[in-house]
# Entry
Amino acid sequence: MVQRLRKICAAKGISVYAAARKANISVSTLNELLNEKTRPQLYTLYKICNALDIRIVDLFDDNASISKQDRQINHMIVEYQYLPKWKQKLVEQYIEMVAQYERRLK
# Structure
């Protein structure tokens, strides 16, 4: 997925870091993602896709095998996209709330 993200950014003529800024993702989160030290949270993928104006499936190479977890993430994002805007906002707020809680536990 990381290589695919780099290719998409290059094709759009922006750096990965510029995409992260546009997506409002911290540099530390981006570095962990790029160095494959962590798997991105659903909300992080959502923010990246929105910033790049792409679909979640665009982050995955057609020839690469997609893990079960990645398929689940894809499914959740597709379901999210069909929600009315007000429900999308509720989901975003909930995910952000859970992420803040998790950060406090660390």
About this structure: The two ends are 26 Å apart (CA to CA).
